[in-house]
Design a protein that fits this description.
Mean pLDDT: 96
Strand content: 15-25%
Structural class: alpha/beta
Shape: globular
Largest sheet: 7 strands, mixed
Strand order of the largest sheet: 1-2-3-4-5-7-10
Low-confidence stretches: none
Order of helices and strands: EEEHEHHEEHEEHHEHEHHHH
Amino acid sequence: MDGRSMEERFEGRVRLGVEAGVAEVTLSRPEAHNGLDWAMIDGLLAAQRRLAALDGLRAVVLAGEGESFCAGLDMGAIMGQPARLPSLLEADEAGINPVQRLALGWRNAGVPVIAALHGHVYGGGLQIALGADIRVVHPAARLGLLELLWGIIPDMGISVTGAGLRGDVLRELAWSGRKVGGEEAVALGLATRLAEEPLAAARESAAAIAGHSPKAVAAWGELLERAPGLEVRERLALEARLQSGLLGGTEQQEAMAARLAGRAARFTP
C-alpha cells in the first residue's frame, strides 16, 4: 500500500477503507442494525479476502454503521433462500465453513483487529466480534448469544474464539438468551474495555499499533496465541526465540533510534 489510501465496497453491505496502514471494515446495513443477510455474509467474506491480499497492513478496525454493530443473523432473509443453507456449513480445505470464517477469517489479515461495539451485538454479531483481538464497547451496548431462541447453537467458530472465556459464562448466556450491557460484558471477558466513543477509541488503538514495529507486534501475537498449548519450558523457549528474532534487528534499531530522537518510527515493509 505504501501509505496510500483506498476505499472499496462489497455486495453493497460492507465498506473497506485503508489509510496509513490501518484498514477500517464497516458493516453497512444500518436500517436493519447490520443484520447478517446473504449479501452481508458474502460481503464480509470478500472483505476478509481483500485484507489478506493487502501489503503493508498494520491494523484493522471493525465497526458497524448506524445504531448497532450487528444484530446477528437476519433469519427471515437467510431462511428465505433454503437452497443456499447447506453451503453455510460446507468446510473448505482448512476445515472451516463460511459462518465460522466470518469470525475466524480476520486472522488471515495477519495484523491486530479491533472491534468497536455499540447498540445491538447479538448472536452472530457477537461471534464476529469475538474473532477480533480487542473489543471496545459502549456502556449502553447490549450483547447476547440468542441462537437458542431460534433453535440453533452459536457456531461461528466460538469453540475457538471463546476458548479463553469461562465456560459457565458461555453456557449461561446461550442457554438463557440473556443480554448484558457493556460494563458486564467487560467483567465477563466478552469485551476488552469501555469507551463512550468505541469507534474513536478503536481508531486510536489501531493508530498506536500501526506506529510500532510490525515484527514486534506479530511476535507478541504469536506468543499469546501459541503459549497456552505449551509446557512451561516450551513457553519460555518460545519467548526467547521470538525475542532473539527482534533484538538488534533493523526494526528494533529503528524503534530505539526514533524513541531516543523523539520522532515517529519509520518502518518499511
